[in-house]
Write a structure and sequence with these properties.
The chain is α/β, with parallel strands linked by helices and 282 residues long. Helix content is 29%, strand content 18%. The protein contains ten helices and twelve strands. It has helices spanning 2-13, 64-75, 91-94, 97-104, 115-118, 135-139, 206-211, 227-239, 255-267, 269-273; strands at 24-28, 31-36, 39-44, 54-56, 83-85, 108-110, 154-156, 169-173, 182-186, 191-195, 244-247, 253-254. 45% of the residues are buried. The protein binds zinc ion (2 copies). One zinc ion (ZN) is lined by residues 39, 90, 92-93, 196, 220, 248-249.
Length: 282
């Protein structure tokens, strides 16, 4: 079974990459966004200050070595993060977490509602190909949807909204895409790490993913199971008035463009966010 899933995955996922693959970008001195094929992970911490940092999400399967190299380039040869924070447990966000933990043996933090998917108790529902005509949506039933088991390392995020090792940051529950999806926000400079609560590329389209065409979009449609909650989460994030955002897919966005795009997404969620039809729509 396991083997089957993996070979299916190899076959279907090889074409999934983008012009951003392997590219890193310092969004702020202490917020570094790195694109692994089609998904972003973020390092929070200033290499020129304490050198302490936290890794948000862990990229695609089989990317552990590349991620460790990227971290060494950015933070120095022996650098390892203080912790990992997961926005949610989809395969493209936890892809390399188990391998990284084998090397690092550090704590992982996630929302308690996401824990069943991270402790081997639950699988996610499969991707829904009916949400969009885009090729990624069509391929999505082939993506791995099984939960992982990192129960030796994973902890529930503190209930007071704080994030261990990330002073000044708060986590915000943004369910809909998954039950325990979180975003991370820093009030004083209004930086938002939004995971897949909304994204800045139309993730259902292979062409737009490959070219990383910038376009505000709701959460990736094929995987989102609760559209009412997803809409509430987008409204919650818009109300934070972020200045800069790093989303799980697509390029970082900021300033007026972000403010206008997010407002547009809230106002037109039924047209551009929510799919017209699909397994999880009604
Ligand atoms: Zn996701
Ligand atoms: Zn994603």
């Amino acid at each position: 079974m396991e083997h089957n899933q993996d070979s299916k995955f190899e076959e279907t996922f090889l074409p999934m990459t983008s012009v951003g693959n392997g590219v890193g970008m310092a969004v702020l001195p202490d917020v570094y966004c790195y694109t692994d094929k089609i998904v972003n992970l973020v390092l929070v911490g200033d290499p020129n200050k304490s050198g302490e940092f936290v890794l948000i999400d862990t990229g695609m399967p089989k990317s552990a070595e590349k991620i460790m190299e990227m971290i060494q380039e950015h933070f120095g040869e022996r650098a390892i993060p203080k912790a990992i924070v997961l926005t949610h447990g989809h395969f493209d966000h936890v892809g390399s977490v188990a391998e990284l933990l084998e090397e690092w043996k550090i704590p992982v933090y996630a929302h308690e509602l996401e824990l069943p998917f991270l402790t081997g108790q639950c699988d996610y529902p499969p991707g829904d190909p009916n949400v969009d005509s885009g090729l990624v949506a069509k391929l999505s039933p082939m993506f791995p949807n099984h939960g992982i088991n990192i129960s030796d390392y994973v902890h529930v995020l503190p209930a007071d909204g704080t994030i261990p090792n990330m002073p000044n940051w708060k986590w915000v529950h943004t369910p809909g895409h998954t039950p325990g999806h979180i975003s991370l926000f820093r009030e004083h400079d209004r930086v938002l790490i939004a995971g897949d609560a909304f994204v800045t590329v139309k993730q259902e389209s292979l062409y737009k993913v490959m070219t990383q065409t910038q376009e505000i979009s709701g959460p990736p449609k094929y995987y989102t199971t609760d559209w009412e909650a997803a809409f509430e989460s987008v409204k919650k994030l818009e109300a934070l008035k972020p200045q800069v955002v790093v989303t799980g897919h697509g390029l970082p966005m900021g300033g007026e463009e972000l403010a206008e795009s997010l407002w547009y997404l809230v106002e037109h969620f039924d047209e551009i966010g929510r799919p017209k039809s699909g397994r999880y729509v009604n």
